[in-house]
Amino acid sequence: MATNITDHLQLIDGRGCPAIDNEWIDSIDPSTGRTWARIPAGGASDIDVAVRAAARALPAWRETAPAQRAAHLRSWARLVRDNLDTLWRLDAADNGRPRREAEPAIAGAAMQMEYVAGLAETITGTTVSVSPTASTYTVREPYGVVGLIIPWNAPLAMFLAKATAALAAGNTLVVKPPEIASVSVLAAAELVAKAGIPAGVVNIVTGEGASAGDALARHDGVRMISFTGSTQTGRRITEASTGNLKALSLELGGKSPNIVFADADIDAAVAGVTAGIFTASAGQACIAGSRILIQDSIFEEFIEEVRLRASQMTLGSPPDAGTDMGPVVSRVQFDKIRGYIESAQADGAKLAFGGRSGPELFSRNKDLASGYYIEPTLLTTDDPGLQICREEVFGPVAVALRFSDEAEALDIANGSTFGLAAGVWTQNLPRAQRMITGLDAGTVWVNTYRRLHWALPFGGHKESGIGTSNGPQTLDEWLERKSVWIEYG
Fold it and tell me: With CB atoms 3.0 to 4.6 Å apart as the test, which of 87, 280, 378, 426 could cross-link to 261 if both were Cys?
């Protein structure tokens, strides 16, 4: 029986509080399958209280000088850095991300917070000359109370980056973290007051998506919603937000192609393809390169090299420095991924390697044998229309397909409803440029994969999202424009 289970409270109007109905949700450590913490099961009533608190805090925060907002946010970033060891451990216990991913991701988020904080002082309008008797110009203003719904694959890093941008723009926040991975977000939110950010500016309501998340998307006191998660849930958020026609920013799913030409640096491509799917939070990343397109002349050779590299990866406890890949986030996700592996083979795909899970992987470790572990898995097929090639698995499972030339590679790569990211491996620069032009994706990497930076815009095409985050214009998604006409008579 699990021991040392800790309760964590929501943050509303600067105070820690349980859910109004005093119900709780168990937080499960995916590496052991055991409860390690509890979070409040907030709902519509909790959301309403939080939205009202954010509305009360809005006027003062909006009128705070941009330089002062930036100073508060930099202080928050320093506190995150000072508490890095605690925060990454909570994040790893929440969602199973190994230390080698969680620790640098949160450290990077602190750096991103400092970058974004500085943008608070760059908000400008434009003077427009339209009449000799008038002064006409534009200003940009915060929406007001905004809602932030974040995913479970990188909850803390996503919260820190998005919240900082929203606050730098002058908005106040109600945040709904993922119900299966909220503890690290709550811990980071406890640092807000120490950074000098007033009560009510940041509010955290934990709970199920169908209750708290839906209530946040529907609340008429919320002017804008930023959501990161699956395309299916994104559609529900869009429908729920229509009551007061909220502004939306949606970062959604992907089925990203990683395209390997015969002239690629094979060693580099093998390393990039493997890291792009198996160590991308155990494949639980929207940009995971889950479709591996390989030129037919090197198909078998390349798959064997990927198999060898994947076989050297260490699956283990997330806090261990030597762990390359941790568990998937939950029993639900574990069963879903195994279902995809089974159905793909039933559809005719061949298992190149992997496929084992749970107790099969840890016969000598009873703790980890109860965890939600799935080993790196690769399937092959010649049919890009199979379910495994079309749907986002969100796990350490990739599918490999052959192509003969650039045209066929582009046809397969773009034959998806998603358009988030793509990778190209070739030493032919003109070919790389043709592929960049032809790929319908928000980000294209050449001879690398899964490289992100807060100074570079990020967003999806097609069903992978609406809006762009990061980059010098990252505050744009959190600001409205207003036109002003002053007539002199």
Answer: 426
